[in-house]
Structure formats: C-alpha cells, structure tokens
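Structure in, sequence out. Go:
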C-alpha cells in the first residue's frame, strides 16, 4: 500500500496526531492495520473496534503485539462478539471522549452524540453511514464529519472497481460456480452496483439491473445492461445481488418467487437488504460450507444464501474485502482527512461534508504515480 505508507512516513515527521486519541471503528483486517500504523506513526493513541463479524483476530494479534503499534492501539473486539457486545464497545469508545472519530456506519458518531461528546471532527467511510447522518441525525451533528464515501476518487476506485471485482470474485470462490450465462439481478446501480454489474458481465453473466432512480436505470441501459422491475426478475434470476444501502430491498415474498436454485448475495453495508431473517423462519438454512447455506422452501424450491446476507466480500470466509490498491487509496483519504480535521476542523462547518479537493488531488496524483502513470511520455 505505497500511497498510505508514504502518508505514514510523512506523519512520522509532522506528527499531526501527537497527544490525540482517535476512536476507530472500521473492519479490522490487514489493510486497515496499515492505516492504524500510519495514524500511530503520526502520534495517535487509538481505541478501536470493527464492525460485527468482520474483525480478523490474526490482525488484532499483530497490532496489539507489534512494537510499533502495541502501546498505542487498543482493540476491543473479542471472538464471538454479538450485538450486545458491539453496542457496549461503541459506548465504551465514546466514553473515552476521543479527539477524533473514524467511523464506518455512523454508529460510533451516534454513540458520541448520545453520550454528549463533541470530538474535534470525524470521518465517515460509508454510504450507509452518510445516509444516517443526513437523515436520522440531520441537524444534530455539532462537529464536522468528512464523508470519505463522497470523494469521487473513492467512488471510482473503491466502490465501483474495488467492490465490483471483489464481490464477483467472492461469489465465484464461495460457490465454485461459473457465471457464464447465469442471469444475475443487481439491485442498485450506484457506484457499487455499477462495478458489480460490470465485473459480472466480464465473467460472462447476463446482468439485469433493478434500480429505483430512473436516471441511473437509464445509465444502466446505456451501459448495455437489461433494466427491469423487481417483479420482472423474480422468476428468472439465478443470482440476486443487492447494493443499495437500503433495508428490505429483497423481501420474503420476492425470495419465495425466485426460481429453484437461486442464490442470494448482499454487497451492501448492512445485513438487512435481503430478508434472510424472514427466510430463516420459513426455511432454516443448512450449512453447505462455512459461508454457504441452502434453504428448503415449503414450495420445494431450494434457495442458497451467502454469509447470512452480510456484506459478502468481507463477511464470507475467504472474502478479502476490496483489492489492496482500492483500499490503499480509500484509507489514505481517511488518514489525510483526519489530519485535515486537526489542522482546520475548527474552521469547518458542522455536519457531513465532502473530502477537501486538495486531498482528492493529492491522493489521485500519488496513486497515478504508484501505478507508473504520471509523467509517462508517449511515442508518436
Ligand atoms: N461491499 C463493500 O465492500 C462495500 C464498499 C463500499 C460501500 N458498500 C455499501 O454498498 C451499498 C451501496 O453503496 P453505493 O456507494 O453503491 O451507494 P449509491 O448511493 O451510489 O447507490 C445505491 C443505489 O441503490 C439504489 N436503490 C436504493 N433503493 C433501491 C431499491 N429498493 N431497489 C433498487 N435500487 C435501489 C439507489 O437509487 C442508488 O442508485 C451501501 O450500503 C454501502 O455502504 C459496500
């Protein structure tokens, strides 16, 4: 991750986080560990937790034992943690009154708001978290929150190409199934959906897009995909993949109409886009492999689900998350936005706002250089 490592080396000299605590809530895995190392190099003290079910405990072991991070990084997750431990950990981090907050779903920011704590500023990684800040918490956030997801760089490199590639790759690896001529219904043609549709097509699938925004539906059609309503895909979809950031997009009634053998996959942040809980009540899943379940519907049809409807490219066993280059870029945006909050947080307006242009330009240039594309000359 050369772009992030270079930012860390710069922080080691400038020490933007010296004497500051960062409340850190992001999937804990090898790539986010590099972000923690960069922040610690900049002088931060970190108290961290992952999202439920996505923490890799080998990474926790490295971070809490490695000499460079051990004394500066506490990670609260324990194997088997469920919703009550997650809620307690969020409250525990908020109670330490961190100077800065790095969030992934806006729940740590919500815990700070509930506890009356006002950090200097925060960053929010996801679309889902940005929705919460702009809807549930609208008008209540009294400190600046830089929404990393709103960066055009993250949208292109991470949400479109990173998620697209890794979701499709995870589905193929978990199922050992070829996608050629499979009919895949992608719900949502936002940044993630665009990438999933693109990479599924590259693997030979027939992709149909279901999208409620007519402009994005038109874009999908112009990009060469079939576009349909939910009821038009239910009797033909071999695979359903959701990427909307919204709950109940594929409900039980829809699941029950799917053809025999259909596979349910969620790429969105929360596990409520597909009603797997409702499906479990009528057709409890039997485990075929650690991330793959078969549900025998009363109608006799078999429906398959991956990772219980959780974010597939992270929660499925063997899911490595986004490719390392995409994470290099996205996590550098995180690191540099946190440093900008220390520098300019008091000048920024309260509430959600975009990544400053100067950071986008800096990180785009650094990534182009790391790809060997900057300053290259072309022969005529
Ligand atoms: N899997 C990952 O690694 C990963 C990475 C980044 C983001 N995400 C998550 O993926 C989800 C989508 O993110 P995004 O950046 O593409 O968001 P986005 O806002 O760009 O796109 C979401 C799209 O879904 C559409 N939509 C909403 N409700 C719908 C419905 N009922 N039926 C069909 N379409 C509907 C919207 O119109 C929009 O076009 C979010 O939950 C986000 O947090 C996942």
């Amino acid at each position: 991750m050369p772009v992030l490592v270079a930012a860390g080396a710069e922080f080691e000299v400038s020490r933007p986080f010296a004497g500051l605590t960062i409340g850190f809530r992001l999937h804990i895995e090898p790539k986010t560990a590099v972000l923690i190392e960069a922040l610690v190099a900049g002088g931060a003290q970190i108290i961290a937790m992952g999202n439920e079910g996505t923490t890799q405990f080998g990474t926790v072991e490295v971070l809490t034992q490695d000499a460079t991070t051990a004394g500066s990084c506490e990670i609260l997750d324990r194997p088997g943690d469920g919703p009550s431990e997650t809620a307690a950990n969020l409250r525990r981090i908020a109670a330490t009154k961190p100077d800065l907050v790095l969030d992934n779903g806006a729940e740590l920011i919500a815990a700070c708001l509930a506890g009356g704590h006002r950090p200097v500023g925060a960053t929010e990684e996801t679309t889902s978290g940005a929705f919460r800040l702009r809807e549930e918490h609208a008008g209540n956030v009294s400190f600046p929150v830089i929404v990393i997801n709103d960066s055009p760089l993250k949208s292109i490199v991470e949400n479109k190409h990173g998620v697209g590639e890794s979701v499709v790759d995870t589905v193929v690896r978990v199922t050992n199934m070829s996608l050629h001529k499979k009919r895949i219904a992608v719900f949502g043609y936002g940044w993630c959906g665009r990438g999933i549709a693109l990479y599924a097509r590259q693997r030979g699938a027939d992709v149909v897009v279901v999208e409620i925004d007519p402009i994005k539906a038109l874009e999908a059609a112009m990009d060469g995909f079939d576009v349909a309503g939910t009821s038009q895909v239910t009797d033909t979809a071999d695979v359903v993949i959701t990427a909307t950031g919204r709950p109940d997009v594929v409900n039980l009634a829809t699941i029950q109409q799917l053809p025999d053998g259909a596979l349910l996959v969620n790429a969105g942040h929360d596990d409520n886009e597909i009603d797997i809980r409702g499906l479990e009540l009528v057709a409890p899943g039997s485990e075929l492999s650690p991330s793959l379940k078969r549900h025998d519907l009363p109608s006799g049809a078999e429906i398959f689900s991956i990772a219980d409807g959780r974010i597939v490219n992270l929660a499925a066993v063997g899911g490595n998350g986004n490719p390392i280059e995409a994470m290099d870029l996205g996590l550098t945006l995180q690191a540099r936005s946190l440093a900008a909050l220390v520098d300019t947080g008091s000048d920024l307006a309260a509430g959600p706002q975009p990544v400053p242009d100067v950071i986008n330009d800096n990180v785009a240039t650094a990534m182009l250089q790391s790809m060997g594309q900057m300053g290259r000359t072309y022969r005529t």
